[in-house]
Amino acid sequence: MSEPLLSKTQGSDPWKARIDRVFARALVLPLFLALALLSWLLLDTLYRSFSVQVVRSDVGLSQTFPLGTAWQEALRAALLQEGYTEEEAEAMLKDPKELRALLNQNRVELMWNTHEGPLRYVVTGSYDERVLDLPLLQGLRRWEELKAGLGEGERLVLNPWLDQTFLTRFPSRNPLIAGIGVAVAGTVWVLTLALLIAIPVGVGTAILLEEYLREGRLNRILEVNLRNLAGVPSIVYGLLGLAFFVREMGLGPTVLAAALTLALLGIPVITVTAREALRAVPESQRQAAFALGATRRQVVFRVVLPAALPGVVTGVILSAARLIGEAAPLLLVGAAAYVPFYPSGPLSEYTVIPVQIYLWVSQPQPEFARVAAAGILVMLLVLSGLYLAALYLRNRFRREW
């Protein structure tokens, strides 16, 4: 009788309950603080991606076009304003090379508000100059004042820097028409090649360690080294890539050198996550397959690997999300700050989204900070998509053993 009564008294100890509550609050408070800081940074970045501008067009157009106007018509009007004839303008719009050059030098965008009304198309040329650039709230407060003070050739716009063509426009030294298209293409090239190299090596290493070398000195040595490599700073991989891939192998500052460097960075992460997924498969599945007469290879590739595939894919996606945000190693292996063309192959020059953002932030013009904010939003959207895909795959294919 006394023993149950004693345990009941100990279970209702007020000091123990108070310590548990304090400990729980101490864990929750940093989490809420981190979420609040992340939300503030996201909102601040979103706020900086909008601005109110006064732009002067000494050569091109100062008027805007109503919603529903074809962008070709707006571009034709800009060409006529610059002194081209109707025939010359029509020929330039029909020639693919000329049209591509025009779109690289001009931005045809739907602005949220202009001095001539809301939701109107605006043509911004490479020679247009900024007269005034104000933060969103300040510009909206002074909107009527700025509208009344417009001079000849000037226009007032509410400019969303992350617009419908920001992902396809080429980089430019003029922030008004700068885009992130080349950096997106370079990121796709580098990340795709890096994953094509890292996935077979990482998953193969995990299978070797978990299914063939479960016990032994070699297994312990490889496991310790892999976990150490997973925690090595990315800048060290950049130094390795610069010394070996760029200089020793003679690849130079190319897409392939960057992909090999990022592959080295991703292999330890993929290996560790793949091993955890393989380890989660019950031993009874292996023994049942062996009992039916399957060989080791058949057990691994027809029983264990398909069962562990959701966890392996989740680890690959999380590794890709880490690699897509790396800038330090790519700066060391020669990612160019300004590349005005799309990569044409593994041996071409390139730039990636983090490096492009770094270039914009380092520019002296304040408008480039707004372009960088739009680029940051693009990268956050990509990362959010990858993390949501990993979460969906984990929940969709989760198995309870």
From TrEMBL:
User: Which InterPro entries does UniProt cross-reference here?
Assistant: MetI-like, MetI-like_sf, Phosphate_PstA
Compartments, record wording: Cell membrane
Q: Which UniProt keywords apply?
A: Cell membrane, Membrane, Transmembrane, Transmembrane helix, Transport
Look up keyword Cell membrane and say if it applies: yes
Its membrane topology: Multi-pass membrane protein
What PROSITE patterns does its record include?
A: ABC_TM1
The record's principal subcellular location, in a coarse class, is membrane
Q: What positions does the domain ABC transmembrane type-1 occupy?
A: 184-389
User: Sorted alphabetically, which Pfam families does this protein's record hold?
Assistant: BPD_transp_1 (PF00528)
Transmembrane residue ranges: 22-43, 176-209, 229-246, 258-278, 299-324, 368-393
Family, as annotated: Belongs to the binding-protein-dependent transport system permease family. CysTW subfamily.
By its UniProt entry, which PANTHER family does this protein fall under? Answer: PHOSPHATE TRANSPORT SYSTEM PERMEASE PROTEIN PSTA, PHOSPHATE TRANSPORT SYSTEM PERMEASE PROTEIN PSTA-RELATED
The molecule here is called Phosphate transport system permease protein PstA
| Top-level taxonomy | Bacteria, Thermotogati, Deinococcota, Deinococci, Thermales
